[in-house]
């Protein structure tokens, strides 16, 4: 017996429709706030038809277009969930009514505070990079140019580096302070005689 197109779907039904494992759908919920299935007793997930269409759009962007999770998150930020839902509806051959509201997009992040005037800027604090250096790698040779390579879309530019976590910055400052104190103590102690 087939379900009505308006019926809610279980995670296993959506998993089968999208041809992705259920754990991938749960992972996408953690990465894309617009994916919010209804949760009932015992934590069971039920996906509305709009949720399924949105997930089809996400799958299209990730699997067919080859975007990364961050790339799809950027599309959500810049174009909204409606764009991704429209993409899923096109794939499913469904019409997306103009008045139908897909899953709500997350609220946009507040605009960053304006930067101080250049003449008022203080010298930046030194930051200690505690990460080991990346091993050197020889560059990969470029593939020979073909007609298909020239017609492909250019990849998205690399995303901007994430803002450092304030807790990480505080830990780094504390480590620098301890290292500076140790340096001063070593400089003030007489050198051992050999």
UniProtKB/TrEMBL annotation:
Annotated ranges, domain HTH merR-type: 10-78
Biased composition (Pro residues): 103-117, 132-144
Source organism, top-level taxon: Bacteria
Biased composition (Low complexity): 118-131
Sequence segments annotated as region (Disordered): 93-175
A Pfam family hit: MerR_1
GO biological process per UniProt: regulation of DNA-templated transcription
Cross-referenced CDD domains: HTH_MlrA-like_sg2 (cd04765)
Extent of the signal sequence: none
InterPro entries xrefs: DNA-bd_dom_put_sf (IPR009061), MerR-type_HTH_dom (IPR000551)
Listed Gene3D superfamilies: 1.10.1660.10
Molecular functions (GO terms): DNA binding
Name recorded for this polypeptide: MerR HTH family regulatory protein
Source organism: Albimonas donghaensis
């Amino acid at each position: 017996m087939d379900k009505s197109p308006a019926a809610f779907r279980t995670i296993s039904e959506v998993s089968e429709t999208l041809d992705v494992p259920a754990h991938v759908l749960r992972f996408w919920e953690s990465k894309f706030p617009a994916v919010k299935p209804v949760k009932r007793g015992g934590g069971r997930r039920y996906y509305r038809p709009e949720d399924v269409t949105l997930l089809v759009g996400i799958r299209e962007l990730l699997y067919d277009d080859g975007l990364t999770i961050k790339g799809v998150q950027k599309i959500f930020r810049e174009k909204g969930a409606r764009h991704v839902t429209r993409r899923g509806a096109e794939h499913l051959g469904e019409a997306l009514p103009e008045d139908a509201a897909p899953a709500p997009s997350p609220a946009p992040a507040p605009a960053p505070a304006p930067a101080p005037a250049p003449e008022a800027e203080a010298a930046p604090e030194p930051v200690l990079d505690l990460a080991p250096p990346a091993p050197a790698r020889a560059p990969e040779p470029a593939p020979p140019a073909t007609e298909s390579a020239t017609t492909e879309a250019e990849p998205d530019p690399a995303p901007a580096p994430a803002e450092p976590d304030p807790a990480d910055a505080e830990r780094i400052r504390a480590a620098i302070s301890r290292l500076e104190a140790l340096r001063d103590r070593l400089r003030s102690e007489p050198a051992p005689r050999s």
